[in-house]
Specification:
This is Carboxyltransferase domain-containing protein. InterPro entries: CT_A_B, Cyclophilin-like_dom_sf, PxpC. Residues 25-290 form the Carboxyltransferase domain. This protein has 290 residues and is mainly beta. It folds into two domains: 3-163, no CATH class; 173-289, Beta Barrel (Cyclophilin). It is 6% helix and 32% strand. The protein has two helices and 20 strands. It has helices at 36-45, 270-277, and strands spanning 3-9, 12-16, 54-58, 62-67, 70-78, 81-83, 86-87, 94-96, 101-104, 109-117, 147-150, 173-180, 198-200, 208-212, 234-235, 240-242, 250-252, 259-260, 264-268, 284-289. It has a seven-stranded mixed beta barrel. A six-stranded antiparallel β-sheet has the order 7-6-9-4-1-11, with no helix packed on it. The radius of gyration is 20 Å and the shape is elongated. The N and C termini lie far apart (49 Å).
Length: 290
């Protein structure tokens, strides 16, 4: 049996694939990788189907040992990836021989990394997905040390060269592209969302990113219209930008609830959701209409 043993997990490590869409009418979130671009890239680089199960880490600290020969790669946040202590590079495939170790350092930029192995991780699917949903508790448990995980058979064709990762810029202010949401008209001034910059708060997670104005900002929070009244709960899309009465938006990520009772004033593009999933507390963001 080919497998990996988890030696350390860092602050949070979970199994993630592309999620379990199609069950929102039953109250089941889609979940899946928070940064799906990095997840699918990792799978392509080891010749997996894009939906194969990976390990998503938050703030690094993951360390594994190969039980048999394993082809592995790490993508996502800028970090040092170490093979038996020697740096091997981000988004670079590496062959792990029996007993070899692979470690993911805390990132120097961004938040989440994705470890893929050729064949994917063979954990028990729930409703067709191997994703750990941190809000509902569905899927495999959060990873802990001293767990051995079997490598599966989700390998596919090797990727074309155009699948190679592009160079990643690190702008001081991250620009998130959005489309107008279904309840933008419930804001007193909808244009205020795209005015000035916002700052990511510390109380963000896989459910959503909470943002606020900087103390020095001259731009206002988002106010509901005085005649807006109380909304009925309604469906919430992946990437929705919801505005509670506090006026501080929440950007919904992979483990977001399927319904909500506050106005959804914008919806992020797929690329913007991936960017939002990598935001760390203190990051500055700006919204731009598509």
């Amino acid at each position: 049996m080919t497998a990996v043993t988890v030696l350390a997990t860092g602050p949070l490590a979970t199994f993630q694939d592309l999620g379990r869409p199609g069950y929102a009418h039953l109250g089941v979130p889609a979940s899946g990788g928070a940064d799906r671009g990095s997840l699918t890239l990792a799978n392509r680089l080891v010749g997996n189907h894009e939906s194969a199960a990976t390990i998503e880490t938050t703030l690094g600290g993951l360390r594994i040992r190969a039980e048999g020969d394993v082809l592995a790669v790490v993508t996502g946040a800028d970090t040092a990836v170490r093979h038996n202590g020697v740096p091997v590079g981000l988004a670079a495939t590496v062959v792990l021989r029996e007993g070899d170790e692979l470690a993911v350092d805390p990132p120097t930029w961004d938040l989440r990394n994705y470890l893929a192995v050729r064949g994917g991780f063979d954990v028990e699917p729930v409703l067709g997905s191997r994703s750990t949903d941190t809000m509902s508790g569905l899927g495999p448990p959060v990873l802990t040390a001293n767990v051995t995980v079997k490598v599966g058979d989700a390998a596919g064709e090797w990727p074309p060269v155009e699948s190679a990762p592009a160079n990643t810029a690190h702008p001081r202010v991250v620009v998130l592209e959005v489309d107008e949401g279904p309840r933008a008209d419930l804001l007193a001034a909808p244009a205020d969302l795209c005015a000035g910059t916002w700052v990511v708060g510390a109380d963000s997670n896989r459910v959503g990113v909470r943002i606020d104005r900087a103390e020095t900002s001259s731009y206002p929070l988002l106010a509901h219209r005085e005649d807006a009244g109380e909304m009925r709960s309604e469906g919430v899309a992946h990437g929705a930008v919801q505005v509670p009465p506090s006026g501080r938006p929440v950007l919904f990520l992979a483990d977001h609830p399927v319904t909500g009772g506050y106005p959804v004033v914008a919806v992020m593009s797929d690329a913007a959701v991936d960017l939002a999933a990598q935001l760390v507390p203190g990051s500055e963001v700006r919204f731009r209409r598509r």
